[in-house]
């Protein structure tokens, strides 16, 4: 993957029949769904069949499994992601015909034209924050459109056209594609070094965020606890933009003054300069998710909605797929799945899990139930590194973050779009973890067995990574259940 060349979006009604290469992907399928709901003829292809393809087919899309030039049919516009190579037969055919070829983000940008666009960007938290914005606005009766990178638990969908004038979308900085969006309101959660297979370093990342600031038409909402995002806020003010901030920092416009774990629920208080403190809660763990919630209520408040009602609405958020998603429970062991694939994300999830375990222990102690299964439980982390380049660059940081878990199992690197690098394996991380309860286990079947052997009642297993590690959660649940049945005889 590499940085994409910015392309200005065109109105949806000018796209004509639109073909997607990689239609089954989370980002592409969401845009296709909204276009179908908007009356655009859609076709597309993917390397393998999926439920997502079948859902789009039921909505009227012309779906193909496998890539071939004839799949284009009568398409007038081709939409591609930055992961599609130039030798793809459909892309080559589109160039031969002289069709309009749009990057995925330009198609997403088309959805914002003529609507009250809200774009959420940042190195971490985009999917969760966009999801929270959507749920809060739904609670307020706005019926927004949305395109997010994971499915909302409340709707079972990752995208919908909505009936109102508002649409909330993720603004992806990983390949520079957020520079094709022109939102009315934008959120920047944080700015850290990542995607260094595309960027030369943090300086280039900051330069791209500076360009993104220029595209925001009205208000920038920034998480100022993060130093990189704070720099973006300062730059935006210098350029005359309206800037609102959120976080635990003393100078935050939406200041979080209390965070309290109650099992998997987190209570919080938000304070504004000209209002009374407002108490709320979210049904997901972690201080980082409270910050995401603060961003969502700040968006609603900036749009003119009542802050108290917005905070009330955040309680409706039930999570998003692959964002601390429950996979099952067996033998007193609970298994969750997370998309965390950067050291900061892993650290945040492990701190959140530790707070959950501590909360359970406190509740049990208060109730005189010491010795129950959950209290005293441990964190068993199963991590699948994503990309050879990221593994090599952040090996030390991954190891430091994973050291927060009691038991650590690291899989082989998920290559995604990269070719293997000599000497870069999951062992590059395990060799640096600062305790001895760590294993490098390349094989998928062996990984499931190892985790099932390690756990004991009261433990929380957290599978983490951007690859196919998500498929292992249910298998671990089944393995633990089988072991529990065997133990009972």
From TrEMBL:
<comment type="similarity">
    <text>Belongs to the MurCDEF family.</text>
</comment>
<dbReference type="GO" id="GO:0005737">
    <property type="term" value="C:cytoplasm"/>
</dbReference>
<keyword id="KW-0961">Cell wall biogenesis/degradation</keyword>
<dbReference type="GO" id="GO:0071555">
    <property type="term" value="P:cell wall organization"/>
</dbReference>
<keyword id="KW-0547">Nucleotide-binding</keyword>
<dbReference type="InterPro" id="IPR013221">
    <property type="entry name" value="Mur_ligase_cen"/>
</dbReference>
<keyword id="KW-0067">ATP-binding</keyword>
<keyword id="KW-0963">Cytoplasm</keyword>
<dbReference type="InterPro" id="IPR000713">
    <property type="entry name" value="Mur_ligase_N"/>
</dbReference>
<comment type="pathway">
    <text>Cell wall biogenesis; peptidoglycan biosynthesis.</text>
</comment>
<feature type="domain" description="Mur ligase N-terminal catalytic">
    <location>
        <begin position="18"/>
        <end position="112"/>
    </location>
</feature>
<dbReference type="Pfam" id="PF02875">
    <property type="entry name" value="Mur_ligase_C"/>
</dbReference>
<keyword id="KW-0131">Cell cycle</keyword>
<keyword id="KW-0133">Cell shape</keyword>
<dbReference type="GO" id="GO:0008360">
    <property type="term" value="P:regulation of cell shape"/>
</dbReference>
<dbReference type="Pfam" id="PF08245">
    <property type="entry name" value="Mur_ligase_M"/>
</dbReference>
<dbReference type="InterPro" id="IPR036615">
    <property type="entry name" value="Mur_ligase_C_dom_sf"/>
</dbReference>
<dbReference type="GO" id="GO:0051301">
    <property type="term" value="P:cell division"/>
</dbReference>
<dbReference type="GO" id="GO:0008763">
    <property type="term" value="F:UDP-N-acetylmuramate-L-alanine ligase activity"/>
</dbReference>
<dbReference type="InterPro" id="IPR004101">
    <property type="entry name" value="Mur_ligase_C"/>
</dbReference>
<keyword id="KW-0436">Ligase</keyword>
<feature type="binding site">
    <location>
        <begin position="122"/>
        <end position="128"/>
    </location>
    <ligand>
        <name>ATP</name>
    </ligand>
</feature>
<feature type="domain" description="Mur ligase central">
    <location>
        <begin position="120"/>
        <end position="300"/>
    </location>
</feature>
<dbReference type="InterPro" id="IPR005758">
    <property type="entry name" value="UDP-N-AcMur_Ala_ligase_MurC"/>
</dbReference>
<dbReference type="InterPro" id="IPR050061">
    <property type="entry name" value="MurCDEF_pg_biosynth"/>
</dbReference>
<dbReference type="InterPro" id="IPR036565">
    <property type="entry name" value="Mur-like_cat_sf"/>
</dbReference>
<feature type="domain" description="Mur ligase C-terminal">
    <location>
        <begin position="322"/>
        <end position="467"/>
    </location>
</feature>
<keyword id="KW-0573">Peptidoglycan synthesis</keyword>
<dbReference type="GO" id="GO:0009252">
    <property type="term" value="P:peptidoglycan biosynthetic process"/>
</dbReference>
<keyword id="KW-0132">Cell division</keyword>
<protein>
    <recommendedName>
        <fullName>UDP-N-acetylmuramate--L-alanine ligase</fullName>
        <ecNumber>6.3.2.8</ecNumber>
    </recommendedName>
</protein>
<dbReference type="Pfam" id="PF01225">
    <property type="entry name" value="Mur_ligase"/>
</dbReference>
<dbReference type="GO" id="GO:0005524">
    <property type="term" value="F:ATP binding"/>
</dbReference>
<comment type="function">
    <text>Cell wall formation.</text>
</comment>
